[in-house]
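Hi! If you just cloned this repository, the fastest way to understand the data is to look at a raw example. We've pasted two of them here, unedited. The first protein comes first, obviously.
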Amino acid sequence: MSVYDYPINTIDGTSLDWSRFKNQVLLIVNTASKCGYSRQFAGLQQLYVDYREQGFTVLGFPCNQFNSKEPGDHNEINAYCEQNFGVTFPLSEKIEVRGSSAHPLFQYLTETAPFQGFDLGTQGGEWMNHFLQEKYPDILEGCGIKWNFTKFLIDRSGQVFRRYEPTIEPAEIEADLQRLLAQ
């Protein structure tokens, strides 16, 4: 199995053509426009611009499952991302990424790269862990997605290389991205 085995629709409702991403390095991210982590759109876009000519693409997957931070329809989501962060990388239709209704792609991603905890040695990791324990303790259970902007770096064969939790900024992924692009 690989990410290419899971049909998905783009934000405009057409079927995503996975063949155009084969042999590329991908960064799959569940996104939410109104989330405090939405600032990461800028960093994701920068990675996309800096590395797309080397065979890299960011794929954003809008989701409204975490504190209702993606309430808009597809047109509103697309416009917000373009106008506020200059997003030009592909976005999918709004999907669910955790629980029994999680899209099969995200079931595959979280089974392949389960949650390993937040880095409690960082302020962001400690804060996120405390926030979820206090407000949403059920989210911490299991291997699923814990919040918006969980990222999965995918190698050129469509296999998961590494999972990064929301507290990891896009620029922090750059060394791993460069390593995969060089292979």
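Ok, and the second one:
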Amino acid sequence: MKPLALFCIACAVLLVSSCMGKRGTVGGEADTDLPDIRERGELTVLTVNGSTSYFNYRGEPMGFQYELAQQFVRSLGLKMKLKVVNNTAEMVRCLIRGEGDLIAYNLDITPAWKDSLIYCGEENITHQVIVQRRSRDGLKDVTQLIDKDVYVSPGKYYDRLVHLNEELGGGIRIHTADADSVSAEDLITWVAEGKIDYTVATDEVAKINRTYYPNLDISLVISFDQRSSWAVRKTSPLLAEAADKWHRENINSPEFKASARRYFELNKQPAHGSILSVKDGKISHYDDLFRKYAKEIGWDWRLLASLAYTESNFNPNVVSWAGAKGLMQLMPATAHAMGIPKGKEQDPEESIKGGVKYIAQLQKLFRKVADKDEQAKFVLAAYNAGAGHITDAMALAKKYGKNPYLWEHHVAHYVLLKSNEEYYQDPVCKNGYFRGTETYNFVRDVIGRAEMYQAKIKR
């Protein structure tokens, strides 16, 4: 198998950046409804990249709205084709032109689009919130923002804060983050880490981030409610009825609840323990396996052990929020591509053997990174994020005058920026939204822990 073959999504997903062409139209709008869609056997879903809608994680498609769309399309007995576009305005244009059948995204319900769309499915109520750390002294009322420093990204969060400041008669110290170097999710991370005290986000984004940082308090609402839902064309009333019915009947189903829990409730940060026995020179119960298989990739076995520890805390039975399994936390498709038999994903030796085979493929992919220590950082980043996001960051580094073969301050800088719309929508990027902070920290933690192992544990 070629290295890049791992990163192809083995499902009917098509990523595009623009929509062209028309099907049959009535009054300038495509005239396609559920009977026509059933006849062709495929429903085309439109969405945009984002933490709550759709993203590529370790080479596999994920996202809350993506999963719900899959469930809905499956209920109709149809195949799903996904088109990912750049923004909501383009999504609506593509829908009206007939280049998609359904918008699976929390699209704001506005008068401007009501003449062209039928809003359908579950109606969501969203609002902006203050993100702060949990504390007895936490803000409980917007008036307490006076004389506080609040850091926000330019755009809707800044605009809302300015309006709120005017309503309060002034006093909020508003700081605008540089959009070229800091994303809204970076600011949330800074709050969690204590670098700043307050920022602003939508409640959905805040809920997802709280699964990474349980110390966040997101209870203080600062905006009016905004209604949103899925949408279809005005010429697709039967499809709208089907979406309404499916949401009504499935919102309490185990599958629907499992998807919601995966993205908005499950803790994304596994707990970690300590070295098994410094005195006996043991890192884990699996040291002999790490020694055996690390030789195949030319790694110090303690670096491989550090990777496994960071992934699973040496627990072979753990299953991550995204479905990764075993000591090496391989995603199901990757595990099977690496030759791990079905049902053996949590077998310690099979997991380590499969993980090492995957690392070997990543080493080939990043063979142009000549320095082996430097290459290990690229491999670790790709192991954690999926290679596509790292090659995107390399392309961004090259475009903006950085060295695409150096990690720190070069490619790592653009890994951190890939949750920022301006960067993940750059034409050189092929893999969309990505939460880069986690991968940056992952590389730092694995390397740092390996150095600690090397200092304490003999080869």
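That's it. A detail worth noticing about the second one: DSSP finds 18 helices and 14 strands in the chain.
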